[in-house]
Amino acid sequence: MKLQFSNRLMSSFLLTIDNAILKQGEAFSSGSGRFYPISGNAYGLYIYASPYRQLVNDASISGSVIVSGLYVSGNFVRPGQSGLVSLNVAEGLAYFSYQPTNVSGTFSVKEINVYLNSEPEEKLLFETKMSLKPKFPQIITGMGISQQSYPVVFLKPIDTHNEPLCFGGVDSKNYRLRAIVLAETQYQLTATCNILENLAHRNVPLINVTGLPFDALGGYTGAPYNYTGATGSVPDAAYLYVAQAKSSMLMSARELNQLNPTIFPAFVDFELWTIQGP
Question: In this structure, what DSSP letter does residue 214 have?
Answer without folding.
Answer: B
